Amino acid sequence: MRSLYEKMDAELKAYSEKLNLKTRFQKFTCSSTDGFAAGQSAGDKVSLNKQVGQHSQRYLPS
Question: Reduced to 3 states, what is the DSSP secondary structure of residue 57?
């Protein structure tokens, strides 16, 4: 699988060089502290306990 990834990566690089495309790396930051706080508050209200029952878990045989 890795060789396929490396092959595709090399093809994409060659194609982007042919088109004179340049790539940029961008660091993502949180620009809205109010939005971040609202998202955390909404996430705290989500309960996974109701979605996952005790009897629905299956384990692989050892």
Answer: coil
